[in-house]
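Input/output pair, single chain:
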Amino acid sequence: MPDLEKILALSRLFGVTTDYLLKDEIENEEFTDESEREPIKRVSLSLAGEFLDWRAKAARRIAFATLLCIVAVIPLMLLAAATETIPENLAAGLGLVILLVLVAAAVAVFVSCGFKNAPFEFIDKEPFETEYGVDGMVKERQKAYRPAYVRINIIAACLCVLSPVPLFVGLVTGKELFTVVMLSATILLAGVGASLFTLAGVRWASMQKLLKEGEYALRDKRKIRIKETVSTAYWLTATAVYLGWSFLTNDWKLTWVVWPVAGILFAVVMCLCNLITERDERR
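Output:
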């Protein structure tokens, strides 16, 4: 029994429907009208190389932008804790300005990467075929990158697990300013861990997309689109809640708790998303 890609290729080669190829009984050929069907895009060896090189660069930029988004709240927290030496209004205003500047810089990076990725957008959204030699080249790159991918993920996981340690040290001392500094260190460690996950994941995903492996197999593309939509809506909502709560209460020392809570709930939302899509597929 050939796999789905070979069935599609046979269908195009002989100009018959896939149903005709899969039926057990021999019937009259059910020819397809090639003129009415859009041609499937093909990924050449040079295009695949350009895509992988670009995604390697984009991974570093997206990881940096992710780090900026996470650490953007640190200056605001430090300034709010230093109100004994800085006027409270000045500290809040300056901290908010720095936060918005850092988030704006991160958004600029995300938007720039989105525009530069436009020539390769069809790889994410449309069916495609790879020309001779592409799979072999990608597998060689994947094999060479695997040790670094594993190493980066191990370091990122360790940083995320150890990130609460500075906060615990700060809580033991009981000094407010020192506790805020240690909390900032916790956020920084967690941010570095998240950016490392992004750095490794974006590059690895680009290889899986070309090979149609893992989450990027044909059967899982619908799941990915649903996850991306839900993820975007979720984090936009979390940002709106954070900013709305902060502006209404002006209690910036407390409202940062939105982000760790949102991070925990995000895992729950993704699990529910998987369950719903799997249930729909079984129907």
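Residues 42-216 form one domain. The chain has three domains: 1-37, 42-216, 218-283.
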